[in-house]
Predict the 3D structure of the following.
Amino acid sequence: MSLVVEVRQRLGGFTLDAAFTAESGVTALFGRSGSGKTSLVRIVAGLARPDEGHVRLQGERLVDTKAGLFVPAHRRRFGYVFQEARLFPHLSVKQNLDYGRWFAPKGARAEQSGRIIDLLGIGGLLARAPANLSGGEKQRVAIGRALLSAPRLLLMDEPLAALDEERKGEILPYLERLRDEVGIPILYVSHSVAEVARIADRVVLMNAGRVETIGAASQVLAGPGLHSAAERREAGSVLSGRVEARGEAHGLAHVRLAGGALLLVPASGLSVGESVRLRIPARDVMLALTRPEGISALNVIEGIVDKVERDGEGMASVGISCHGDLVHARITAFSVERLGLRPGLPLHVIVKTVALE
Amino acid sequence: MDWLALSDEEWTAIRLSLRVSSVATIASLPAGIAVALALARGRFWGKSILNGVVHLPLVLPPVVTGFILLLLFGRRGPVGAFLADWFGIVLSFRWTGAALACAVMGFPLMVRSIRLSIEAVDRKLEEAAGTLGASPLWVFATVTLPLILPGVIAGMILSFAKAMGEFGATITFVSNIPGETQTLSAAIYTFTQVPGGDLGALRLTLVAIVISMVALLASEIVAQRIGRKVHFE
């Protein structure tokens, strides 16, 4: 599956001019508020018309302004999860879930409605009215409703933005399961580094209506491409690994990274053999030239400096290759000078277990 | 209590009034919803003019409205002649004409109520329905219509009430023929014009009060039922 988007649209003084392609898996449209993410995803959904450009899904033309072609939203079969749940207040949860199924073509109807309901943990809510649900429950029902319409592509426009931290934490695991178990490509709009790091495979970084960078999540989120100071503060490395062992006594798990390094992480919710994604916030990484002694941090990994990038505001982003896995550290330019960091220098990377989610 | 017993003529007037009002309300409903939709959502040239025309019966003296109807829908009027020649429908001096007059008089009230409820509908819900595969027509039937139902019912009640009380336009357009166009109001008026008719007028007045009360209570109950389902967010 491949989604090809290349559109231009003027919205008052703002110009959206973006092109990207999305493959299977989760592609995140990432950028700060007002960067045009939502306008772009609305065009993909067919809720807005671009002034110029085209949108294609697996070769099927959905929008082509040159040919005057525009397939309306209801014929695209794209699931859309909005920022607010937008459940129909006059229907029960079950009727809301069934709504999309009524209009899905017979052959394409999602057979595993039971599985999706289980996956989202909404089986106990079916008889309730949307008004009697919590924010997190509403959003889960909205996700289920979109999935049950048997979409070819799932668009999620900041589905967690309207929720508080606790509710976000409640839904994120469901989204991860969705990504791993439902084979539908997902376009995920977000301005949160943490969310994108957990969910996305690829990231399309947007700024002021334009696409700045496209790349693997681990690359884009590493830092230098990020724009605002707030985003840079949130920058970090995304590494994947496999859970090797769980130590029940201390509530810790051993995760072996792809490159072979071993990390100790909090074990909650992990099971042995599971593949996991770790986000190491760059500001939580310390660097030492010699192996530190008598230190509380549990993870000390050997690595070699890959590159050093100063941001001109007294901070620097240092990329360290640890047996092939790239870990980013955000330290002051002063420290870079003091330690004499330069590409090729061997050192020790220190990460507190507590900083790992 | 003999004086309470209604004569055949009076029964006829009551039945006629109920029939005229029901037909007027139900027949004008589709047009009412369509016009309300156009006024609430449409962007077209002449929207203000349409709005003005719809509200005209509210501000014009009813006699004037009745006279205009007579000019347009009378036997020799442009619309009346067309309907009579092509469809064999004659409105002037028939109960159907009374229904038309009542529908026209109640129309602004119906449109106003429905329009307000359409404007209150969250269009984001309609957008969501669209992304779930519902065509615009289905979106209207499954989302918009259920959400505006309280407004539609309120509009119908207003139109029905207006029709029950309508006098001026009706009597001007279709006159006051017992058994054909003599509605409750016209019958009461007739009673007050003849010596010794006070008792009859009083009887019909009581009937009018009972009908109005029942209609109001019924609408209250229906609105509450639906309101509980629709307006909790």
The CA atoms of residues 36 and 195 of chain B lie 46 Å apart. The mean pLDDT of chain B is 88.
